[in-house]
Fold this protein.
Amino acid sequence: MKKLFKIVFGIIAVLILGFAGLVGYATLSDYKPAPTSLFFENSDANPIAGLKQFNLMIWNIGYGGLSRDMDFFYDGGKQVRTAQKNVENNLTAIKEFIAQQKNIDFFLLQEVDKKSKRSYSINGYSKIEKIFPKFHSGFGKNYDVFFVPVPPSNPLGSVLSGLQTLSRFEPVSIVRHSFPGNYAWPQGLFMLDRCFLVSRYLLENIENTDNSKKELIVVNTHNSAYDDGTLRTNQMAYLKSFLSKEYKKGNYVIVGGDWNQCPPKLNPDFSDNIMDNDNRMDIEDNYLPEWQWAYDSKIPTNRRLVAPYDKNKTLTTVIDFFLLSPNIEMVNIEGIHLGFEHSDHHPVKLKINLN
């Protein structure tokens, strides 16, 4: 009996020490981004000349690992990662679709892995960057964890991922802005550090009243999920303050990405899918009253991952869309229904005019 007790006690002690070591190392190595981080700067970048109409596309590519056959344990499913061949095929299909969008001036992408176990250390950022060699590429890291220990039976492992903005024009700067708040310790050690990525472009022959050149501000955002709404509410307040200041300067401001919440007063009109009204969170009606929300109410942009995709059963929603400052006119908005074949999100394309 004493021998059995010692064995059991030893196993428990090893598990406790192992967990303590994991949390200790995670605490010491925790990614703690500054409120703002400069990714790129060139004060001599050429202004955008002679153009007032632009095309943009947003897409959360799900790191190439969330195709239609996947469920995901964080969403109530069972799977942790798909096979490496599936990731490779998904990323190839994603690249091919992006390459076809030759009229797009700005691509705002989310969940782009650089080196993660879930995507077999394939550098998706580099692969996408090479699609349009003359485009400028920026990156905002929002997930940098040496080891995600859940689920215990098959841990997610290391993750290095973030936002990628591709643009036809060279920006004056690209700055990562940290969203406020995070999960409590120790859970926060293994979760995303949410952010939005701000790219600034000078506009030729368009000046403010103080004779400074107006700027086109393109914001790539990926707001929190898996929280009770508190994190998203605080993030939206922080973003609102930033956007208001930029518009007050006279700049043109476009925000696009995965908001992980629905636009205000969304009234979906899906023909082939079911809207998820059970897990729905809407942005408040008076968020920025004069600004315009740009979304396609006929096409869902995201599916739930509790089970593989089935258009007759899977709950879907609209959480990928744009927000435009009052000095910008929306010409056209179009969601692209790809049957969630290679990502759990659909791309959305937008055409705008600067007034």
